[in-house]
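Weekly puzzle thread! Below is a chain. First person to post its structure in token form gets bragging rights.
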Amino acid sequence: MSRFGWKYGAVIPVLLLSFGLQEIHAQQVSYEHATAKQLAGIAKDNSRHFGDDPDHPGPLAKDLSYGIAPAPVGKAMRKVADWQLERSQPYFDRIWTWSVLYSGFMAASESLNDPKYRDAMMAMGAKFDWRLRSHLPNADDQSIGQTYLELYLLKKDPAMMQPTRDELDAVLAAPRMSTIPGKELPWWWCDALFMAPPVWARMYAATGDRKYLSYLDEEWWKTSDLLYDTTEHLYARDASYLTRKEANGQKMFWGRGNGWVMGGIARTLEYLPKDDAARPKYVKQLQEMSARVASLQGKDGMWRSGLLDQSNYALPEMSGSALMTYALAWGVNNGILDRKVYRPVIQKAWAGMLHHVYADGRLGCIQQTGAEPAPFKASASYTYGVGAFLLAGSEIRRMEGNSSVGKRVH
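Winning reply:
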């Protein structure tokens, strides 16, 4: 028996931890220790229609099975995806908080063999004329290009790809270095490694032009040299966090930030050619980070917002946990991570995440936007966390032999 009380590979009883989780979700109706700035940020997030954190979100789901066989995983994915699609489609936007959800919808459509999520993405792309959010876009504003390019690779309609290509070419032609102190690199914050590099890798897949790979490899490893702790095998959020400490004196490593990086490696490797000279470095970094985060997994299967001070954070954090789980499962599926070692970690993580799905499909325990560990409510649900959850579920279904997953397009 594991420390969680179930045998390896067994279906976890529905009532496991149920009372404790219901109590946590019932009690988390206010923010303890939140600063005025944090509360203002939460209010701003909620006003922009990509999430909310109601005091009374309703009961938790009781109809989910916590095993990782394809069918129950698919049921949970569909429950969450349908809830999110119905409530958010009128507000679709091009900012990163939405683009991560779009990546999840694309993965769910393939995994569940359900075109409605992909159809919604087609409608979204047409609504925005397949354009990025800004000219000379930063990493966040490039991120929607991941979905545009995946659709292009399916449909081969140049209109879906050309606006993104034009903007990436403009970035290549522009001076590389910012004049803002501490932000001299284009990808100066670790979140950027999920947002931008997968776009450049997909553009290579769409065009065959290696200039996109050259830029990707050069800029990724500049950011890694600045932010990656080669002892802890974790990323600082940005240079201002290199010396920041948690309450217990440990270094501050943000859970979601490291999830962004691990997910970014997976989504970049997915389209990186086998002969890319830097590929072994990406593989090694994913292996190092995977081993480290596996050692930090909580007893409930999830990870906290602050990775090295778990006792300081009462609630597990969904978006970081889902991103890490996605990367771990992707690594197993692609022969980078040992299945025997990581499948139990993935299984525990998925079970932990399902304890934060509500009866109506809301996915809770998602930290609001930010740059560091922060308080949030158990009911907090934001689009990017749902996208990460759908990515994780899709890879778990593939890991467990889901026969409905279609052939990759690249």
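Puzzle host: Confirmed. Bonus trivia for everyone else. The first strand starts at residue 51 and ends at 52.
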